[in-house]
């Protein structure tokens, strides 16, 4: 649209300019022809007349007035011997000084543009053309300069009319171009806009959304491609949902079905253990019981994971003291810590209350403590509980084997182990941290990990004080206070 307006403006300017130049040139040519004919006619009349010097200019004025009166298209000014330019109705200022010099210095015919000034001061000044030449009277020793002034009143009106017409036509063309541009743009942009809306709805989950196909052009091809893509997405997502449902159902069914033989095996081990006749048999029962307990933990974790995958996990929120929950879990894990010679220290204020599901928070702390004790290698495990106005944080720091920085997010994966050759001393299903991350997300909280090889690991749990609240600022840093400041790690 802007380009079209520029072209119209430039084109109209040059059109008016060329038309004006043509009109002025035509007027100049007409003025020269008219002046030539009049000069020849006056010169012929003077040649056949025996004039005295005193009456020469009177005769010239009469002849010039007669010629001007007959034509009505120009005014005549004659250079008098004493009084200068003589004319009726037109001011001598209408003749440029440069033209007067040229006519006085040489014979010939000269033209120049001018502004015609009238002596009555009522008629407005108008542009015009001055044609200067000379006359020779019989018996005169010098030529007589004479000037023909042609007002361009009609030409100015014509140019003004042309300018108005060009502006009017240009405005109409601009309006037509604007309408055409609007209609064309709307025709092109409406399907694209509809495609954008459809894509947004598809991204929002409305997989049954489709575009209307009109015609056979490229936009229709785009609409068909969008519809095909939506159909493919709907089919693929449906297949994935069915596979996910089958997987979740399989895990849940297997977990439930395995409980029955586990119960039977436990009853059998109890009966064997009740008759401790053979020491080897008693030891075997103890090993079998330990493995069954581990297997039951795995089954419970699998059931919990299946609930998370199915979106069936819910919070049983109540107002709890997080410090007391942490103390209780430290007491539970103390026998294992003593067996592994791992001291546990607690740095906590008197009370830090929050609206949480105590079972899930206790499970998170239990998993963090168990992992820290197992990997501490005899060094102290430091537990910190602090809070601020919006959140409560629990930090668990060990100084054991640690892990690589790139593994900070992988530790929350299912069945992931940083060192596959390392033998578990505490036990567990390998799903503890994965379930802990899900429990933290269910509380709208954070569970992050920091680790360095040989420097230990640091896990941070941050939960909002109010159920469903937002964490504006964490009460605990993402890295431990004894970490190297030059070796920082972003939150994971």
UniProtKB/TrEMBL annotation:
Biased composition (Low complexity): 474-483
UniProt keywords, alphabetically: ATP-binding, Cell membrane, Kinase, Membrane, Nucleotide-binding, Phosphoprotein, Transferase, Transmembrane, Transmembrane helix, Two-component regulatory system
Tagged with keyword Transmembrane: yes
Protein known as: Sensor histidine kinase MtrB
Coiled coil (UniProt feature): none
Organism listed in the record: Cutibacterium equinum
Topology in the lipid bilayer: Multi-pass membrane protein
ATP-binding among keywords: yes
InterPro entries documented for this protein: HAMP_dom (IPR003660), HATPase_C_sf (IPR036890), HATPase_dom (IPR003594), His_kinase_dom (IPR005467), HisK_dim/P_dom (IPR003661), HisK_dim/P_sf (IPR036097), MtrAB_MtrB (IPR047669), Sig_transdc_His_kin-like_C (IPR004358)
Region annotation Disordered: where it falls in the sequence: 471-492
The HAMP domain, residue ranges: 186-238
Domain of life: Bacteria
EC numbers for this chain: 2.7.13.3
Domain Histidine kinase: 253-467
GO MF annotation: an example: kinase activity
Enzyme class: transferase
Reactions catalysed, as given in the entry: ATP + protein L-histidine = ADP + protein N-phospho-L-histidine
PROSITE patterns: HAMP, HIS_KIN
Pfam families: HAMP (PF00672), HATPase_c (PF02518), HisKA (PF00512)
Principal localisation: membrane
Gene3D superfamilies cross-referenced by the UniProt entry: 1.10.287.130, 6.10.340.10, Histidine kinase-like ATPase, C-terminal domain
Subcellular location: Cell membrane
């Amino acid at each position: 649209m802007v380009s079209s307006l520029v072209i119209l403006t430039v084109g109209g300017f040059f059109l008016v300019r060329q038309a004006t130049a043509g009109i002025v040139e035509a007027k100049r040519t007409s003025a020269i022809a008219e002046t030539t004919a009049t000069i020849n006619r006056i010169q012929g009349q003077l040649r056949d007349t025996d004039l005295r010097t005193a009456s020469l200019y009177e005769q010239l004025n009469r002849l010039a007035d007669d010629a001007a009166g007959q034509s009505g298209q120009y005014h005549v000014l004659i250079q008098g011997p004493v009084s200068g330019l003589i004319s009726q109705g037109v001011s001598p200022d209408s003749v440029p000084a440069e033209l007067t010099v040229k006519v006085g210095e040489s014979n010939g015919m000269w033209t120049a543009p001018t502004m015609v000034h009238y002596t009555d001061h009522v008629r407005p000044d108008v542009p015009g053309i001055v044609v200067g030449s000379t006359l020779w009277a019989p018996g005169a020793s010098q030529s007589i300069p004479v000037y023909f002034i042609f007002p361009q009143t009609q030409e100015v009106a014509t140019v003004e009319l042309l300018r108005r017409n060009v502006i009017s036509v240009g405005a109409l063309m601009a309006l037509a171009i604007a309408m055409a541009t609007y209609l064309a743009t709307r025709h092109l942009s409406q399907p694209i806009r509809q495609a954008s809306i459809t894509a947004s709805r598809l991204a929002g989950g409305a997989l049954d959304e489709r575009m209307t196909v009109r015609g056979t052009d490229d936009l229709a091809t785009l609409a068909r491609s969008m519809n095909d893509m939506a159909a493919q997405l709907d089919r693929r997502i449906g297949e994935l949902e069915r596979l996910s449902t089958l997987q979740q159902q399989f895990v849940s069914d297997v977990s439930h079905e395995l409980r029955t033989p586990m119960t039977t095996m436990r009853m059998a081990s109890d009966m064997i253990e009740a008759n401790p006749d053979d020491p080897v048999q008693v030891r075997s029962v103890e090993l079998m019981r330990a493995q069954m307990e581990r297997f039951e933990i795995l089954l419970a974790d699998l059931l919990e994971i299946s609930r998370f995958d199915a979106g069936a996990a819910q919070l049983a929120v109540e107002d709890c003291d997080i410090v007391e929950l942490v103390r209780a879990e430290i007491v539970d894990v103390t026998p294992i810590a003593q067996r592994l010679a791992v001291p546990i220290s607690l740095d906590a204020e008197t009370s830090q209350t929050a609206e949480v599901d105590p079972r899930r928070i206790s499970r998170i702390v239990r998993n963090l403590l168990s992992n820290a004790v197992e990997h501490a290698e005899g060094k102290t495990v430091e537990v910190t509980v602090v809070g601020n106005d919006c959140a409560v944080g629990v930090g668990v720091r060990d100084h054991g084997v640690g892990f690589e920085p790139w593994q900070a997010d992988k530790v929350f994966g299912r069945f992931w182990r940083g060192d596959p050759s390392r033998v578990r001393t505490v036990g567990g299903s390998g799903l503890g941290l994965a379930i802990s991350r899900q429990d933290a997300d269910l509380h709208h909280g954070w569970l992050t990990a920091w680790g360095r090889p040989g420097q230990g690991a640091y896990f941070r749990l941050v939960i909002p004080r109010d159920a469903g609240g937002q964490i504006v600022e964490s009460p605990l840093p993402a890295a431990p206070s004894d970490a190297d400041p030059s070796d920082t790690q972003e939150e994971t």
